[in-house]
Automatic annotation (TrEMBL):
Signal sequence interval, chain numbering: none
Record key words, sorted: Cell membrane, Membrane, Transmembrane, Transmembrane helix
Location(s), subcellular: Cell membrane
Annotated region (Disordered), positions in chain: 1-67
Residues passing through the membrane, by range: 136-160, 180-199, 211-231
UniProt protein name: Putative oxidoreductase
Any Pfam family the entry gives: DoxX
């Protein structure tokens, strides 16, 4: 006479007797309707086997970490950022053309180098080339809305230096109203991003604009301090 423990071995193993292997113990193989898997005469209802989506949705197992979605379209904000970005970029392209090529009644490299030397800067010619091309490059990138954090940080760094050497506390707004407006516009673009009307629209630095803005703000501040301390 066989016991309950003997029957699985007599019938060829646990799988044949209705027992489950360890991997099947939580989610048994799906029986067909009407099968009697315990020999009790009762019928069972088919249970669906869990799918990968059940695990991914938080019911156990692994979870997928997805990148944040790109910024949603917001006509007012994106249009405002576009106008601000293109205006600031065009103005700085103009300043760069004045310094590098002497266009638009600008001083050219020699004239700008003399102005920097009068403000106490050393290596004035070399610094005038760097400043001129920085303004040209940053302005062009702002117009395109490309690598906006780097471009806005470059403009902000140039304006920080300009405000530092030109501010006069005896005048309204220190006599640097225009430089302050430029700096504020660059700061806004640095942390808000270029907006969806730009070449940056699908980039990580648009989706995470504040984080990238903070990184490039530190870079701009460091370069500004080096310029003022080492070259002046």
């Amino acid at each position: 006479m066989s016991t309950e423990d003997d029957r699985p071995r007599q019938s060829g193993g646990y799988a044949d007797s209705g027992y489950f292997t360890p991997s099947e113990s939580k989610y048994p193989a799906t029986p067909t309707s009407g099968d009697d898997i315990h020999g009790s005469g009762a019928t069972t209802t088919a249970l669906p086997r869990p799918t990968d989506s059940d695990y991914d949705s938080g019911h156990g197992g692994r979870e997928e970490v997805l990148d944040p979605q790109p910024h949603a379209w917001h006509l007012g904000a994106d249009l405002g950022l576009f106008v601000l970005r293109v205006t600031l970029g065009a103005l700085f392209v103009g300043h760069g053309l004045q310094k590098v090529f002497g266009l638009l009644e600008g001083p050219g490299i020699d004239g700008f180098a003399k102005a920097l030397a009068a403000l106490g800067f050393q290596q004035a010619t070399w610094l005038s080339w760097i400043t001129g091309f920085t303004e040209l490059g940053a302005g062009a990138l702002l117009i395109l809305g490309l690598f906006t954090p780097a471009a806005a940080a470059a403009v902000l760094g140039v304006m920080a230096n300009a405000i530092w050497v030109r501010v006069d506390i005896d005048l309204f707004a220190g006599g640097v109203e225009l430089e302050a407006i430029y700096a504020a516009a660059a700061f806004a673009l640095l942390f808000a991003g270029a907006g969806r009307i730009s070449l940056d629209r699908n980039t990580p630095w648009l989706r995470r604009a504040p984080a990238f803005g903070f990184i490039f703000l530190i870079i701009a501040a460091g370069l500004s301090v080096v310029t003022l301390v080492v070259l002046r």
